[in-house]
């Protein structure tokens, strides 16, 4: 496990315009373009990194936030190892929609144990001065909805972006280890890939 | 005569012969003909037979040219017809079965020569620099590419192979168009296209140029290594490669005058570092998209930009985004953008504009030119003494037997049921007059300088981004990285989307068959794909082939119905489109003598009615 490189799929979900593509681009290419297209459907980039001695290839899936692109993006939720629910701290509606995004993900990704699935919440656009969502509000939502880690990020000035993705990797790896320790009492071996796990558990 | 009979292959839609003969190598009386044969297909043909055919065709071709003071375009030899091209001392001939439309044979040869020049530059120089064996492999490769993989209908129209847009979310076509637009933000990028599994998803280039670029794609996909193989840029991994290609001046001008929004370029290329116009543009693009519904991206919507362009209205590039096959090239030729040409090679004078115009129309005029000059056996005394070339028109010309049996396309005209309705479409007439006389485009390939340029290719599994870029793009690392990184995520995503699309059930045989050919974008829409009816012997395919030939040869012909005892096919032609329609079922009330109850006469209205839902408007 420690020597071989594993592929982890993480997916960015959230309202259109909160900065999902910018977060991905900042993390992978360390660039920021204030005038990106609306994403159509899905896009992804790979990034190799080492976290706590584990070599992983992070496959970051960026999705279209607009409602009209729903049918294009939802088929690609399956197989995700971690979901980054993203809102913009200067847009209260995007914060209020977090719950809907979580529901949409759980439904289309066919997550069997939603309470155990690693979600991470990102409040992006920290660089913007006029906030509509306070840190406290956001933290409270995270606590009440499953004790999710919360990061305030800025894709524009690179604040907390790498930290958030590394946390995503840690969460996934921790899940794997927990799964591995459970084996003795269980006759069913749970693979890390939810797709195969789904068929095992049903 | 028996030798020639042996030479002639059995009936086939494909090219049966192709050769390039260099007359400069055979000057003296004693020089053997074989010294002049640069390439001969099929390659297994014995040298004696190669010499026989080359000698006969080259001799007759030159003789007729000198007597008529005009280039020979087509020669008939028994049941084959040969498209002929002569350039300097070079003589090309490409032979197909006589039932293949003349226009198709000529197109095939022109495409072949143009392909060679695109990848190798001038023919003379190529043969000075490379061995015959090396170049023989390329001719063979291009010939096989041009004939591979297409359906029978696609062969008839020699159209671009596009992805099945009826099966693809139009948003994905928009996504592809936006990727190409984003690449053009780099000023070194002239134009591009995106291909998936050998089919066009989106293109900013003319159909002719797109077809040429696709050869490199398919070649790389097949992992065939060229002798002077593509160079791979290691810094971007094995998925990026490039090769030098050669554009004609007209092609280069086409690309440079294409209306790329300069505000859209990366800021370092423009004095004003203001990205605001870009943002406005994009959001408009998306909002138009979002509210116009998916139908507007179907095959039908691709018509509107063309219509506009033909009426000299379209001057903005924006609209090209909305056409599945990309129509920037259609917007431009009729209304060249006044932007200053910044390219070092461009001179922008009027004569080149003229050349451009004529090149653009070469497709349409080729048939006319071919038929005008082509030599029928028996109608020229030149051939009387040469029995080999006295090919009688009528023998076994099975293509015509559906309704009438006739020897050549021209003589069929009077038997077409609904004849020419030349009355009063002034614009059509004017337009077609403009296309006369036939342009010298293919002949000029060597005269007009060929400009080296770089074809850059970025592959993501079955998806390929192909860009024509200025040669120094490859040494401009920041530009290359910018293009690579700004498109990578989108290409990954587009590939995932397209791969996820199921091939789609082959449509249940409907009550009718149609084929709609767009001659501007060189695309074909049909409900026949993948069905057994697509076979060449199917009445619809044969009728379409024959009617297409008529439309090509007879510029004033707009509508025709052709039929046998069992089937009737309606065809209609306009400047930009040809549409063919066959209704199944129902009894054909066909007494042999035209009467008003004949069900064939209801075909035009049925076609208008039925095809509306396919986005084909015949009203």
TrEMBL record, chain A:
Organism domain of life: Eukaryota
Gene3D superfamilies linked to this entry: P-loop containing nucleotide triphosphate hydrolases
Membrane topology, record value: Lipid-anchor
GO biological process per UniProt: protein transport; Rab protein signal transduction; retrograde transport, endosome to Golgi
SMART domains the UniProt entry points to: RAB, RAN, RAS, RHO
Compartments (UniProt record): Cell membrane; Cytoplasmic vesicle, Phagosome membrane
Cofactor (UniProt): Mg(2+)
GO CC field: cytosol; late endosome; lysosome; phagocytic vesicle membrane; plasma membrane
GO terms assigned for molecular function: G protein activity; GTP binding
Keyword line: Cell membrane, Cytoplasmic vesicle, GTP-binding, Hydrolase, Lipoprotein, Membrane, Nucleotide-binding, Phosphoprotein, Prenylation, Protein transport, Transport
Enzyme class: hydrolase
TM regions (residue ranges): none
Record-listed E.C. numbers: 3.6.5.2
UniProt xrefs under Pfam families: Ras
Predominant location: membrane
Catalytic reactions on record: GTP + H2O = GDP + phosphate + H(+)
UniProt-listed InterPro entries: P-loop_NTPase (IPR027417), Rab9 (IPR041824), Small_GTP-bd (IPR005225), Small_GTPase (IPR001806)
CDD domains, per database record: Rab9 (cd04116)
Family classification: Belongs to the small GTPase superfamily. Rab family.
PANTHER family, sorted: RAB FAMILY, RAS-RELATED PROTEIN RAB-9A
Name of this protein: small monomeric GTPase
Organism: Mastacembelus armatus (zig-zag eel)
Automatic annotation (TrEMBL), chain B:
GO function terms (MF aspect): guanyl-nucleotide exchange factor activity; small GTPase binding
Record-linked Pfam families: Intu_longin_1, Intu_longin_3
Domain of life: Eukaryota
Domain CCZ1/INTU/HSP4 first Longin: 16-121
Annotated InterPro entries: CCZ1/INTU/HSP4_longin_1, CCZ1/INTU/HSP4_longin_3, HPS4
Biased composition annotated in UniProt, kind: Polar residues: 307-332
GO biological process, one term: protein targeting
Low complexity bias: start-end ranges: 293-306
GO cellular component: BLOC-3 complex; cytoplasmic vesicle; lysosomal membrane
All residue ranges annotated as the CCZ1/INTU/HPS4 third Longin domain in the record: 511-608
Region (Disordered): 293-350, 366-395, 417-448
Biased composition (Basic and acidic residues): 428-437
Name assigned to this protein: HPS4 biogenesis of lysosomal organelles complex 3 subunit 2
């Amino acid at each position: 496990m420690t020597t071989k490189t594993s592929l982890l799929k993480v997916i960015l979900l959230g309202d259109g315009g909160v900065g999902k593509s910018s977060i991905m681009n900042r993390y992978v290419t360390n660039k920021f373009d204030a005038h990106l297209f609306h994403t159509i459907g899905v896009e992804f980039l790979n990034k190799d990194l080492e976290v706590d001695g584990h070599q992983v290839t992070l496959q970051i899936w960026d999705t279209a936030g607009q409602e009209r692109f729903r049918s294009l993006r939802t088929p690609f939720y399956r197989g995700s190892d971690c979901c980054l629910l993203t809102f913009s701290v200067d847009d209260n509606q995007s914060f209020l929609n977090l719950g809907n995004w979580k529901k949409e993900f759980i439904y289309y990704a066919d997550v069997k144990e939603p309470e155990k699935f690693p979600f991470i919440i990102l409040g992006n656009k920290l660089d913007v001065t006029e906030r509509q969502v306070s840190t406290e509000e956001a933290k409270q939502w995270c606590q009440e909805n499953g004790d999710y880690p919360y990061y305030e990020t800025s894709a524009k000035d690179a604040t907390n972006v790498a930290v958030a993705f590394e946390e995503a990797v840690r969460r996934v790896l921790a899940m794997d280890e927990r799964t591995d320790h459970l084996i003795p009492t269980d006759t069913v071996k749970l693979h890390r890939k939810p797709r195969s796990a789904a068929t095992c558990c049903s | 005569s028996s030798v020639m009979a042996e030479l002639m292959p059995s009936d086939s839609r494909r090219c049966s012969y192709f050769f390039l003969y260099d007359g400069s190598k055979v000057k003296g009386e004693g020089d053997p003909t074989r010294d002049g044969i640069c390439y001969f297909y099929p390659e297994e043909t014995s040298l004696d037979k190669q010499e026989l055919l080359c000698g006969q065709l080259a001799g007759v071709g030159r003789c007729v040219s000198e007597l008529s003071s005009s280039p020979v375009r087509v020669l008939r030899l028994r049941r084959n017809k040969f498209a002929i091209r002569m350039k300097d001392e070079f003589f090309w001939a490409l032979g197909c079965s006589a039932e293949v439309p003349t226009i198709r044979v000529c197109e095939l040869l022109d495409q072949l020569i143009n392909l060679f020049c695109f990848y190798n530059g001038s023919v003379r120089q190529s043969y000075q620099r490379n061995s015959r064996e090396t170049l023989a492999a390329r001719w063979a490769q291009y010939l096989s590419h041009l004939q591979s993989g297409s359906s029978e209908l696609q062969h008839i129209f020699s159209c671009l192979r596009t992805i099945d847009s009826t099966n693809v979310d139009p948003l994905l076509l928009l996504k592809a168009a936006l990727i190409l637009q984003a690449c053009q933000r780099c000023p070194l990028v002239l134009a591009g296209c995106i291909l998936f599994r050998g089919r066009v998803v989106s293109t900013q280039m003319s159909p002719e140029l797109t077809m040429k670029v696709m050869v490199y794609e398919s070649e790389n996909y097949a992992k065939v290594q060229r002798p002077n193989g593509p160079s791979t840029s290691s810094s971007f991994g094995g998925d990026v490669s490039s090769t030098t290609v050669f554009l004609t001046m007209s092609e280069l001008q086409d690309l440079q005058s294409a209306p790329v929004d300069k505000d859209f370029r990366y800021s370092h290329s423009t004095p004003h570092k203001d990205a605001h116009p870009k943002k406005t543009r994009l959001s408009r693009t998306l909002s138009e998209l979002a509210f116009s519904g998916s139908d507007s991206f179907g095959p039908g919507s691709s018509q509107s930009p063309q219509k506009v362009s033909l009426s000299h209205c379209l001057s903005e590039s924006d609209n090209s985004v909305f056409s599945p096959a990309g129509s920037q090239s259609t917007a431009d030729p009729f209304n060249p953008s006044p932007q200053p040409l910044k390219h070092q090679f461009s001179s922008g004078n009027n004569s080149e504009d003229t050349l451009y115009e004529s090149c653009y129309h070469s497709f349409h005029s080729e048939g006319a030119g071919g038929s005008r000059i082509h030599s029928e056996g028996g109608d020229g005394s030149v051939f009387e003494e040469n029995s080999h070339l006295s090919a009688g028109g009528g023998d076994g010309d099975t293509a015509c037997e559906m309704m009438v049996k006739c020897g050549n396309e021209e003589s069929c005209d009077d038997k077409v049921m609904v004849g020419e309705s030349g009355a009063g479409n002034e614009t059509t007439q004017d337009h077609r007059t403009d296309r006369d006389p036939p342009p010298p485009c293919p002949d000029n390939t060597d005269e007009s300088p060929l400009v080296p340029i770089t074809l850059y290719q970025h592959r993501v599994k079955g998806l390929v981004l192909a860009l024509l870029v200025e040669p120094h793009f490859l040494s401009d690392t920041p530009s290359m990285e910018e293009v690579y990184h700004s498109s990578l995520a989108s290409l990954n995503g587009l590939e995932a989307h397209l791969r996820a699309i199921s091939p789609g059930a082959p449509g249940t045989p409907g009550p009718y068959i149609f084929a709609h050919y767009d001659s501007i974008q060189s695309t074909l829409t049909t409900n026949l794909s993948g069905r057994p009816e697509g076979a060449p012997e199917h009445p619809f395919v044969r009728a379409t082939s024959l009617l297409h030939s008529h439309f090509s040869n007879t510029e004033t012909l707009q509508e025709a119905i052709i039929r046998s005892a069992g089937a009737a096919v309606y065809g209609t032609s306009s400047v930009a489109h040809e549409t063919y329609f066959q209704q199944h079922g129902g009894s054909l009330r066909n007494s042999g003598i035209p009467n008003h109850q004949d069900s064939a006469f209801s075909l035009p209205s049925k076609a208008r009615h039925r095809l509306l839902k396919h986005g084909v408007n015949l009203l």
